[in-house]
Amino acid sequence: MPFAEIGDHATRIRLHYRTDGSRSRPCVVLSNSLGTDLGMWHAQVDRLAADFFVVRYDTRGHGQSDSARGPASIEDLGRDVIALLDFLDIRKASFCGISMGGLTGQWLGAHAAYRIDRLVLADTAAKIGAAAGWNARAAQVRASGMDAVADNAPARWFTPGFIDREPGKVARMVATLRAQDAEGYASCCDALAHADLRESAGQITAPTLLVAGEFDPVTTVADAEWLRERIPGARMSLVPASHISNVEAEAAFTRAVLDFLLA
Ligand SMILES: O=C(O)CCC(=O)CC(=O)O
User: What Gene3D superfamilies does UniProt report for this protein, alphabetically (predicted)?
Assistant: First the structure.
């Protein structure tokens, strides 16, 4: 499993990543949501790799990537992507991020436009939730570990129908969440507490697709509409799913992303 060493001697972390497809193709980077890892893209990878060089990575504090010491910021997460592209010698890539990954994408689109080809912002918002909620969640996992957030994750992530129909997929996602490093997860809750990209949404110049789950109570269709109205020329696609829409509506999600990236 490859790792990219990024940062200087004071900030160095190892970022776990994986590539699929031929390097000769255009690159697309896939960025996971809070409490998941690069495995969340399982249903998309083979199809995307037929047309793209697919780079997936575990956001810092998640999966096999290191956590930096102390709270993270969305800028840190965005700079990690730039460092990963530098490490892989890729000048420009398309980027697709879910929820927290979508915030990373918004930061990249506004602050590193020269590295971004097309942008897919999925199941996300310019500001997700309220700082008090994220601070409470960070404190909870720091004090008690991951079980408290893992036990009720299915109801936050998926519709009741999907939870009934696909217990295996739901159980795998919950197991990944339960296994996360509590400090790494908490440091990304810290990033979410402070993340407010409402001011910079209008600075995004890359062609952008918003993907929203019709039944998502966390980052709603209205949140995606808000971004669509402010990002010049942005398009939007609704998929029949709750928050983790690439898992719940895998075919519709893959189709929407491919149609946009290949247009
Ligand atoms: O999914 C994310 O990246 C942020 C929103 C979230 O944490 C959903 C949840 O687990 O409650």
Answer: alpha/beta hydrolase
Distance of CA 223 to the CA centre of its chain: 16
> In 3D, which of 131, 140, 126, 123 has the Cα closest to residue 185?
140
- Domain positions in the chain are 3-129+195-261
What is residue 48's predicted lDDT score, i.e. its pLDDT?
Answer: 98
% the chain with pLDDT above 90: 96
Q: How confident is the model at residue 170 (pLDDT cuts 50, 70, 90)?
A: very high
| C-alpha to C-alpha distance for 190 and 179, rounded to whole angstroms | 19
Fold that domain 3-129+195-261 belongs to in CATH: Rossmann fold (3.40.50)
> CB–CB of 76/54 below 8 Å?
no
* CA gap 54, 80 in Å, rounded: 17
pTM of structure: 0.98
**Ligand 1: which atom is nearest the Cα of residue 149?**
10
pLDDT tier at 257 (50, 70, 90 boundaries)? very high
N- to C-terminal Cα separation, the chain: 32
Residues 197, 255: Cα–Cα separation, whole Å: 27
